Amino acid sequence: MENQTNTNKIGINYGIILATILTLFTVLGYAFYQEIFVKWWVFFLLLIVIVLIGILSAVKSRKILGGIISFKETFKAYFIPIVIGTLISTLVTILIFNVIDPEAAVAIKDRSIEVTMEFMQKFNVPEEDMNKAIADIRNADNFGALTQIKNWFGSMIVYIVIGLIVSLIIRKKEPIE
To answer: Where are the transmembrane segments (predicted)?
Structure first.
């Protein structure tokens, strides 16, 4: 029981670290460089950071448990920080772009349309397809609270799948004698 408490504490601590990283990214991006929200590579980088924090939590938990950790404990140690960190970050995003400054969400959407147009023009996408893509972006409410919550749940599915694989790799059974 004490070991579970230790792994939970580790997960919570890493969750707070992840929440801090993601919140700083959102706040600093909002304040200084909103263009960052339309860069595709940034979200790939954030995915890597999020998964790495989960892995670090699982590895540290295994170390605390003397090198022996079950699949269940490994997955829990991986997943707790991801849930905490991404949930807090999502709530901060909702607060900034729906309460504090909804106009920023509009500006980012407008820039997203420009970036999409430039990209599609480079690849000679037919105008009809470009118009459809732009209409889809205009109709989307990417920063809306409901969209953010749905996206959070969707991302949890991705992190669960990754976590299952990570847990299979990190777990370590007690040796059979």
So the answer is: 12-33, 39-59, 79-100, 152-170
